[in-house]
Write a structure and sequence with these properties.
Number of helices: 11
Strand content: 5-15%
Number of strands: 7
Order of helices and strands: HEEHHHHEEHHHEEEHHH
Radius of gyration: 42 Å
Largest sheet: 3 strands, antiparallel
Structural class: mainly alpha
Length: 371
């Protein structure tokens, strides 16, 4: 009896903690734009106006677990509200599934979140999914949440998910159900030839071709664009007769060998050869910058440009000097008196042309005055 009463008291303490967290979560919920159109009391929330996020399995109405799931989801989204990358609907649905997994294994309240129920749920996920690593990571993330907010009866050990991913001795292998169809391979090859038909060797044409060629790595190996950009020059290797691609999945870590599906091997080999050809001049320039030899080229070009400017300035100064001399000669010629003019002598306007080469030849007095 005393044991039951102690458990009830402990359960009540957990419920009080959850209630306090829920009050804060409800306030934050009203400020999250991703749930516009939904209310805190709903059994499911509409994420980004399109995706229904069910807080428990359809038909279940466990208020305590539903409230726990609401607090968990709002806490996750609130902490990431300032991130530039929007949390995907798939990610939110995966997170909401953790509580539902545990409810499916008999958990009905906070007191039931213990080592035993966790182990049972973990095994349930392993048996249910062909590739359980993602779902097990979500479960562990949820358990860490209840640890951080003291919503579990006691802390307990979590199971690592590193060994759940399908691997061979060279690294992770591609999932067969996610491999592209041969028709997709043909479509990408057709797109490549469409770009090839308009090839003019320009920088724009090179960028277009590189964009097409990288599609093979994204679709054939499921690589993200950042992983494609970090591929080493000699990325394709043959191990025991099979083709693998060396991929850097994380900065600072060693590359892993990713298995290349058979239908993609020809396309990837051709893509690597073409990418090497397009990037070769840029790689040479990068190497020259790295070893310092390009600095000498820049010094030579800068010196040549300086000398060219000096020659241009000297030529311009010489032209200016000749122009000045020409103007001086013309001015002297225009201002030279035709005959001697005494300083004290008065000359009629009509007679000025006898003395000045530029004098007016008009006979009219008014015209002579105006000129």
């Amino acid at each position: 009896m005393q044991n039951i009463m102690a458990q009830d008291i402990l359960h009540e303490e957990l419920r009080i903690k959850l209630s306090r967290l829920a009050s804060k979560a409800e306030e934050r919920f009203s400020k999250l734009s991703c749930f516009n159109g939904s209310t805190w009391e709903d059994f499911s929330w509409l994420y980004n106006g399109r995706h229904n996020v069910y807080l428990l399995a359809r038909g279940e109405t466990n208020a305590e677990l539903m409230l726990l799931n609401k607090v968990f989801l709002v806490s996750y989204l609130w902490d990431r509200r300032a991130d530039h990358k929007v949390v995907s609907a798939g990610r939110v649905m995966d997170l909401s599934a953790a509580v539902k997994y545990m409810a499916a294994q008999g958990v009905v309240n906070l007191r039931g979140l213990d080592q035993s129920s966790y182990m049972t749920t973990f095994k349930y996920i392993q048996a249910r999914y062909k590739s359980p690593a993602g779902a097990c990571r979500v479960l562990n993330y949820f358990i860490k949440f209840i640890f951080n907010y003291s919503l579990a009866v006691s802390n307990f050990d979590l199971i690592g998910t590193q060994d759940l991913q399908e691997k061979d001795k060279y690294g992770r292998v591609a999932l067969e159900d996610k491999l592209p169809l041969p028709e997709l391979v043909k479509a990408i090859i057709a797109l490549k030839w469409a770009v090839q038909e308009q090839w003019d060797g320009s920088f724009r044409a090179q960028m277009d071709m590189l964009s097409v060629l990288t599609q093979a790595f994204q679709y054939g190996l499921g690589l993200r664009i950042g992983e494609v950009l970090r591929l080493p020059k000699n990325c394709l290797v043959t191990i025991n007769g099979e083709l693998y691609c060396r991929v850097w999945t994380e900065k600072g870590s060693e590359p892993i060998a990713r298995y290349v599906p058979t239908i993609w091997r020809a396309a990837l080999c051709e893509a690597v050869l073409r990418i090497d050809a397009i990037c070769e001049p840029y790689r040479k320039r990068a190497l020259s910058i790295e070893d310092g030899s390009y600095a000498e080229t820049l010094d030579y070009r800068f010196q040549g440009r300086t000398e060219a400017i000096d020659r241009h300035v000297e030529s311009a100064l010489d032209s200016l000097s000749k122009k000045i001399e020409s103007n001086v000669s013309a001015s002297e010629r225009q201002l030279r008196l035709l005959k001697y003019l005494p300083d004290e002598e008065f000359v009629e306007l009509k007679n000025l042309r006898e003395y000045l080469p530029f004098a007016s030849k008009s006979q009219d007095s008014n015209s002579l005055l105006n000129s």
